What does this fold into?
Amino acid sequence: MINVQEFARRLNTLAADAFTSDDVWDLATAADVRLGANVEIDATMAQHLLEQISPALPVTGAQITASHWPPPTSSRPAAPTVSFSSPGAVEGPADQSTRPRGSRPARNGRRPGSRRTGR
It folds into this structure.
């Protein structure tokens, strides 16, 4: 957890705009987050504050409140964010055939190789 001043300082390392403690208070007001003089910002609270900043910063609430700052940078590009509109079933490609499962022709008779031995 970090205090308001440290949160503002860390925001300054990420954003083009300069952030002050007053700006953090304004973010808290916009996010309906209660901050007090002695309240420290945890990962959940930080995430709510970060969601008020536009454009979005490339950091999560957990990263900005972590004990090691700044977060380690990766040489790989960040994966794009994904959002789902509904938790419904996934549709397959349109070019797949629509035949039902188990539509093989029925076999009549015995299985091959299952001969009865004459006794």
User: Anything to note?
Assistant: The chain has four helices and no strands. The mean pLDDT is 76. Residues 12 and 18 are 6 Å apart (CA to CA). The longest helix spans residues 4-14.
